[in-house]
Automatic annotation (TrEMBL):
It comes from the Bacteria. It holds the Pfam family ketoacyl-synt. Residues 46-216 form the Beta-ketoacyl synthase-like N-terminal domain. This is Beta-ketoacyl synthase chain length factor. Keywords: Transferase. Coiled coil: none annotated.
Length: 353
C-alpha cells in the first residue's frame, strides 16, 4: 500500500490561519505589492533570549511545527524534512551588509552560520532534542513537494512512521527591492491585481510557513491521504495537458474523477497560461485558486496544501477561492497544481479518508 496520511496541518501566513475560525475570515489581498505574514506572539513558544537571535523564517517555522506536532500528538518525529526556496535570507543579507560595511574585516560569524538554508530544520531539531534524519530541500517552488516525496518514500520503505514535513520562506528588504527592479513583483500602477484574468506581468509577493505530520497510520486527527506527487522542472505550454493526464493515469484516474483542482494563479499573465491550460481539462471539477489569499512565494504551495487538507476534512469550500460554479456533494479527491514563473511544475494528489 503506497498511501501515507497527513495527520496534522499548521500554517502561518498572511491570513490568520492559526485561528480556528480562519475559514470564515479569509480576505483577498490584491492591492499591495508585498504581503506580510500575521505572526503569533513568539514569547509563548520561544524563550525571549533566543527570539532576538532568530530570523523570521526560523520563528515562524518553530511555532508552526509546534502546532503540527501537538495536533498529531507526536513529541518526537522520526524525521524532520523542510523545504525552502530562499532559506534564512534575512541573516544572509545581514552578513553581506557586514562584509561591505567592515571592508571584509573583523566579521562576526553568527549571521553567516544562521544564514544557511538548513538552519530551520536544525533549530527545530535542537528545540525537540531530535537526533533523527534531518534534511532540507531547496528546489524553488517544488521544495515542499520534494520534502513530501522524501517523507512518503521513507514511510513506505519502513524507515519511519511519523515525519514532520514543512515549508517556509521569509521576505527581506533588499530582495524585495531587487524583485521590484526586475519586475518579478507587480508594478503599483497594475494594482489591484486580477489573479485569474490578468493582462500584466508580475506578482504580489507573500511569505509564510506550513508544517504537516505525515504518518504511516490513519489517526483521529488525520486530514487526508497523500496519494502521489509528480515534479517537472521544465514544461512547454503544449505539454501541460500530457503532464497532468499521465499523472492521473498513473493513479488510475481520469480528469472527470477529480472533484476539486487548486491552481496557483498568481496574477502573472506570462506564466498563468499554464493554469488556464490545465483548467480546460477539468470542466466538471470544482476549480479553486489561492494566491490572492497567500501571495506568491517559493513555497506558497504549503498554503494550498493546508487549505486542501481543511477542505477534505470539513467538506467546506470557502467561496473566496472558487473560480467556477461547479458544486459537488462530496469532495473525495483534490489535485494541486503549482509552479513559479513557469518553472518547477508540481502535482500533488490528496484524497479524503
Amino acid at each position: 500500500m503506497n498511501v501515507v496520511y497527513i495527520n496534522s496541518a499548521s500554517c502561518i501566513s498572511v491570513q490568520d490561519t492559526l485561528n480556528e475560525n480562519f475559514f470564515q475570515n479569509l480576505k483577498s489581498e490584491n492591492s499591495v505589492q508585498i504581503l506580510k505574514a500575521i505572526e503569533p506572539n513568539y514569547k509563548e513558544f520561544i524563550p525571549p533570549a533566543m527570539i532576538r537571535r532568530m530570523s523570521k523564517t526560523v520563528k515562524m517555522s518553530t511555532v508552526a511545527s509546534h502546532y503540527a506536532l501537538k495536533e498529531a500528538e507526536i513529541e518526537n518525529p522520526d524525521a524532520i524534512i523542510v523545504g525552502t526556496g530562499m532559506g534564512c535570507s534575512q541573516d544572509s543579507e545581514k552578513f553581506l551588509k557586514n562584509v561591505i560595511n567592515n571592508n571584509e574585516e573583523f566579521l562576526t560569524p553568527t549571521f553567516f552560520i544562521q544564514s544557511t538554508h538548513n538552519t530551520v530544520a536544525g533549530q527545530i531539531a535542537l528545540g525537540l532534542q531530535c537526533h533523527a534524519y534531518n534534511f532540507t530541500y531547496v528546489n524553488t517552488s517544488s521544495s515542499l513537494e520534494f520534502s513530501f516525496l522524501d517523507a512518503k518514500l521513507q514511510i513506505i520503505d519502513g524507515e519511519a512512521e511519523n515525519i514532520l514535513v514543512g515549508s517556509t520562506d521569509e521576505q527581506t528588504d533588499r530582495t524585495m527591492e531587487l524583485y521590484q527592479l526586475n519586475n518579478t513583483i507587480k508594478k503599483e500602477e497594475n494594482l489591484p491585481a486580477d489573479h485569474i484574468h490578468s493582462t500584466t506581468n508580475g506578482v504580489i509577493w507573500g511569505e509564510g510557513a506550513s508544517f504537516f505530520v505525515v504518518g504511516k497510520n490513519k489517526t483521529t486527527t488525520s486530514y487526508a491521504q497523500l496519494n502521489d506527487i509528480q515534479i517537472s522542472n521544465k514544461l512547454d505550454l503544449y505539454e501541460t495537458k500530457q503532464f497532468i493526464e499521465q499523472f492521473l493515469a498513473k493513479n488510475n484516474l481520469t480528469n472527470n474523477e477529480i472533484d476539486a483542482v487548486i491552481l496557483g494563479f498568481s496574477g502573472d499573465a506570462q506564466s498563468d497560461v499554464y493554469y488556464a491550460e490545465a483548467m480546460n481539462l477539468f470542466q466538471n471539477s470544482v476549480l479553486l485558486y489561492y494566491k490572492h489569499l497567500s501571495g506568491e512565494f517559493n513555497t506558497a504551495s504549503g498554503f494550498s496544501t493546508f487549505m486542501a487538507c481543511h477542505i477534505l476534512k470539513t467538506q467546506e469550500i470557502p467561496e473566496i477561492m472558487m473560480i467556477n460554479s461547479v458544486k459537488k456533494e462530496e469532495i473525495k479527491s483534490i489535485l494541486l497544481y503549482n509552479h513559479l514563473g513557469g518553472n518547477d511544475h508540481s502535482l500533488v494528489l490528496l484524497e479524503r479518508i
